[in-house]
Amino acid sequence: MELKLEKLSEEFKKDIYHPNFLEKFKIPSRTADISAVIPTYNRCPFDKNSENYQYNPLAICVRTLLLQKSPLKEIIIVDDASTDNTANVVKELRQEAYKKKGIEIKCFHNKERKGSSISRNIGAKHASGKYLFFLDDDCVPAPYLTFIANIVLKKIEEQDTHFAVLVLPVYDRASLPTTTININDLTRSFFKREGLSARFNTFPAEYLKIKDKFLNTNLKIFNPIKVYQTWGHFIIERSKYLDVGGFPDFATWPNKAGEEQEFASRLIENTYSLYYLPGTKAASYHGAFGAKIGKFNGIDWLAEMTNNKLSLIRYSKICENGIISGNRVGIKDYLYSKIIAAFCIIYKRNMKEAINYARLSHKEFVVETKKSWFTGYSMEVIADRSEREMIWHKAIEDGLNLLLETEIKKTKKLKGFISSFRVKERLGEIEERESRIKKLFEEIYGE
Predict the structure, then answer these.
(1) Using one digit for the tens of pLDDT, what is the confidence trace for 122-146?
(2) DSSP three-state, residue 2
(3) pTM for this prediction
(4) Which of 42, 369, 408, 437 has the greatest number of CB atoms lying within 10 Å of its CB?
């Protein structure tokens, strides 16, 4: 639901949303045992001669990480075979980070595109921090993100021994949430209730009404909410990330949609729990580079923090006119990816719900052309029903074929495993028979 103007004025102008809110507490700065992991692909389109050079998305992301109240242990960049100015920008950022903040930036370069899942796994493998902070290369983290997250991590760990993931908000082209969501809708499972995704760029409606909503009243940190989904902006203990095998490598579709939901499902199936921390102090602005989603909303805290050297307002304009890069693809590929990913992930766990999802997606996307299907592509709605029908059918059919191929491969592996035991048994029988014959010959011939 849309936030009413009076509620916006009442809630989001409070000092708890001001970037310098915590300054009055004079809390000492301590390094957080967190490794930031950023997969990137062609997010440095501007060269040194461009007036927008300082607004290369990857550069903005890293420089705001360097502004954190609690410094990170390290920053890890995994360049997924970029063909733009990424290498030069990273070289400059590495020197700047070490010289000004004493923070090491580790950079790994894929010789060919592997996708964000594998890139994240590469980053996690080389990380040395206790926790991993995953974020996209066009995100701009709020200055107190690591500080607030550190407090919340410790608190949840005391209360829940199965805790694994702290999901953090990301606001598209905004520094504040502009919509609310009921907590019941926020806590839904991805592969139940017809596979609808939770929206972590909103604010829990109940928190606008109740007084008892803070985990830490003095610092105005909101109570985290237990959830059953995640997206690519979260903090997790590295050992637990590795325990479930990291991010999956199963997607054959254009923008690798569904990676985060598959990962969340793996965590839940291994009895780990996930929490969402609402609010803005541990949130990130999301530039959505290359997407036509409109102008900036909220407070330009970046201009305030950098004495107008950088600005979220200007960055938003640049992102609006940016090129398609990163995981961003055209509208048709996006919709195809969205449908096949959801269908495959749900089908693996609940066939009935997968059928429900297929029916619902056909109704909402093909028949009704609901706006929610075109989030991030609001200016590119596909008006032709036959085109929508073709996208939907291809996604579902390809999904079924992929699932079938996967099962066939699994069955072959299992058969091979079982056959190996039979071979071992036969070899054992042969060796035993040869041993008996040898003993017999020794008795007859005395050899």
Answers:
(1) 999 999 999 999 999 999 999 999 9
(2) strand
(3) 0.85
(4) 42
